[in-house]
Every structure is written in structure tokens, then in C-alpha cells.
Specification:
Blueprint lengths: L20 H16 L12 E6 L5 H12 L3 E6 L11 H9 L5 E6 L4 H10 L6 E7 L5 H15 L6 E5 L6 H12 L3 E5 L15 E2 L3 H7 L2 E4 L16 H8 L3 H4 L7 E3 L12 H4 L6 H20 L11
Parallel strand pairs: 1-2, 1-3, 3-4, 5-6, 5-8, 6-7, 8-9
Helix pairs in contact: 1-5, 1-11, 2-11, 3-4, 5-6, 5-11
Length: 322
Amino acid sequence: MSTVLLRRANQHLLGIETLSALDIRQILARARILRDAPEQVHGVMAGVPVITLFYESSTRTRVSFEMAAQKLGASTISISASSSSVTKGESLWDTGRTLASMDPGVIIIRHSSPGAPQLLAEAMESVGNGAAVVNAGDGAHEHPTQALLDALTLLDRLDSLEGRTIGIIGDIAHSRVARSNLFLLRKLGARVLLGGPRSLVPKTLEPLGARIVRDVDEIIEVADAVMMLRVQFERMQGPPAFPSLSDYTRTYGLTAARARRMPPQAFVMHPGPMNRGIEIDPEVADGPTSVVAHQVRNGVAARMAVLERAMDVDGWSSSKDL
């Protein structure tokens, strides 16, 4: 390898909740360097096998992780649950122990169960393998790299999150993106306003540091940035969460008329995938206030920084804070 790779005990990225503000700033600073100074991107992970282990569908996250790994020189192996021994009844614990025996450098996992990345890390450590585990989304728990790329996007426009107001509107109850963003934004000093129907924005989220505002127009009129989330029908059980889709769009969707009430410098975010015409109008999603495409571009840089951190590439964390 072109750079000495030092392994450490805390190399996993299982969530934002356990990171310090300094950890977050270092990752973001390195991501910005990797994005803006491509001449500094070298094959620091040459020869390192990186496995993407996805038990749920993905486009943006999976592709950007694989692109990030390849830009750093790593070799990528993609495993889907549908084409693995999971279909034969193999547990995640046994899958982890099996993969650990092949000595990968990093395993990136997406799973429908909260805590699956932690279980995978424990399974690998049980056979003495030091590979890093990176959480690419576990149920409705966390999606740490999405929060990191979102923060990078916010800081490209706002310079600092201290004292800023960020609105998150939609299906908060089922959203790992919302949780990771809430943890990160609070750690960096932002005020977070959550909006949506009572069935999808439970009061139990307030102890995490957010303020719930039922009238989304109040959020839109004061927020520096508004993040819209789709309704995750696939995670819902029981009676409908709201009367109808048209009612949801009328009350909580970011329509073109509603978007015109945003402050002059405010902008719109969405982690994707979008349900156009439900939580966000196409005119807004593709309009001048939207930074959705910029979020996607920042995803590769943020995940490159996360992979460097996972392998503890020598000197990566010496970057100056944002």
C-alpha cells in the first residue's frame, strides 16, 4: 500500500450519536479537501477489500460508497441479501464471522433491523478480525453518512451551523436520516424544528433536542434550510397515518406556493428517494432553491473521508476544522 494503514479499536462508524463534535468536524474537513483538491486523492486504500453488504435496496448510498472506495484505490465486492446465503437461512452473525475469515478491510452494511451494524462488528471481532464496519442505514435507527453529507451541504451555504435553524418535515418516525441529522445538527449548535402529522412526528423525539411544530408553514417561514422526507409506507403497520395523500400534500407538502414563503437565502434539501408531488413539488425539487444534486455529489466525498477514517489512514484527521 502507498500509505501505512494503522488499525484502531474505534474504527467503526455505527452512528452519529457516539461521535463528538470534533470527530464530525474532522470528517467534514477531510471530505471538503477530498472534494475540492482531487490531486490529494491517492490510492491510499490500494489492495484493501471493501464489501458492501446490503439487505435493503439502495441507489445513492450504495453507488456513492463504491465510487468512494474505488477513488481511494480499494477493490469493492458487492453482496445483496437476495443473492447470498441469507436466502438459505444464514444469520447475520454467521455471515459476519464468514466474511471476517476472508480478511476484508471495511464492511459497509445496510439492514432493516436497528443495531445490525453493531451485531456485525461484534461477530467479526469474535473471530479476531479488525475490519471496520460502517453503518449505511439500520432500520429507523441511524444513517450516519447521510447526515455527514447533509452537514457538508449545509456548511457549503451557511459557513457555520451554530445558531442556525434547520427544519425537517415529513415522516420522522420511520426516518433514520432524521435521527442522524438531529444528533449531528444539535452537536454543531443548530436549532432543529420537526414538522409533520402527529402519527409520523411523535412527541418522544423532543427529548433528543428537537422542537416539534405542527404547522409546517411556521417552520418554512423561519428555517435557514428545509429538509423534506418521504413517507415510508414500507415501514408502516396498522391503520393509515393520515386521511389521504392529497390531504398530506396539502397540509405538509412543500408546494411551490409554500416554498415562496421561505426566507430569501433559504434552500431545500431531500435525501432521496423522492415521492414527487407528495412531499415535494417537482417545481421545487428541480428549482433554484434546491440543493438535492449537490447533496448527492457531496455523498462521494463524505464517504471517502469515512473510509479513510475507518482504515485510519495516516494523517487524515490532522485536517483543520471547518
